[in-house]
Amino acid sequence: MAQGQIVAGYLAPHPPHLVYGENPPQNEPKSRGGWEQLRWAYERARATLDELKPDVLLVHSPHWITQQGHHFLGVKELSGKSVDPIFPNLFRYSFNLDVDVELAEACCEQARELGLTTKMMRNPNFRVDYGTITTLHMMRPQWDIPVVGISANNSPYYLKLDEGLEEMDRLGKATAEAIRKTGRRAVLLASNTLCHWHFHEEPEIPEDMSMEHPQDYNGYLWDMKVIELLRQGKTNEVFELLPDFIQEAFAEIKSGAFTWMFSAMGYPNIPAELHGYGTVIGTGNAVMEWNLIKAGLAQAA
Question: Which of 5, 20, 21, 201 could form a disulfide with 90 if both were Cys (CB 3.0 to 4.6 A apart)?
Fold first, then answer.
């Protein structure tokens, strides 16, 4: 078997409003659009994903929260209805996932070998979280590429920040090794918002864009600083700033997907492609791409 490789990583945030704005047949509520800047950003990301032709999409979602350990979807075909507990008026989505169980099991085993607590999720009636569904839908609405879903061990919230993110670093290394061993051509999706300060009341018409803007100016400035560093390829500087960014902007990357993805890619200091930035209920969201093929870094993971 040929060695696998990670061909790209994407920062792919998961506001359910974006699916709502797209009006796909799987989602019951219907909108009159909205959040176009972010939805068009995802259109551009989908175009590059199509060129990469991956075997599998791996997504780490902060809304599949596990209190103990890192869990992996372990049922070949998962279907059901995913409902956002905060915005059930916007997101009631009938999903049907094709899971790459072999790769998921390899990730689980490699992470265990690196000292992490891991478990396979074998419940055939498991309701997949809206974060996983939203990121996967916005990146590949055809649903024709197998997936691996990874939970957000809650460690960044109950451990010190450096301890929690160190676990995510090990999870990334384990993921890369599992991809290498299984021969997959893989794309990583970090399902994270940046600044997570948000409004606490929804407008009467959710898709009324006259009501949409950053909730917190300082958080917005932090987003712009981090995005510009990433666009310049200054990955090391971003990770040095990460604790301050998380504290000052309540950045959702505290949940670990961002660190997991960069660890798996080897923390490349390459310029990111910004497909677009926008707010959703005041939170800052960027769709960004690190194409390891274009950068000449897509060697065996």
Answer: 20
Structural domain of residue 46, as residue ranges? Answer: 5-291
| Residue 148 to residue 161: CA distance in whole angstroms | 26
**How much is the pTM?**
0.96
Give the number of domains in the chain.
1
- For residue 158, pLDDT beyond 60: no
Evaluate whether residue 297 is within a structural domain: no
d(CA 176, CA 178): 5
Q: How confident is the model at residue 161 (pLDDT cuts 50, 70, 90)?
A: low
Is a pLDDT exceeding 80 seen at residue 159? no
**Is residue 178 one of the residues assigned to a domain?**
yes
CA-based nearest residue to 187, from 245, 252, 155, 140: 140
Tokens 């958080």 identify what position? 219
Mean pLDDT of all residues belonging to the chain: 94
Average of per-residue pLDDT across 219-239: 98
Do 207 and 35 form a contact (C-beta atoms < 8 A)? yes
Q: Is residue 218 part of a domain?
A: yes
Q: Write the pLDDT tens digit of every residue in 66-124.
A: 988 999 999 999 999 999 999 999 999 999 999 999 999 999 999 999 999 999 999 99
Contact 61, 129 (CB under 8 A): yes
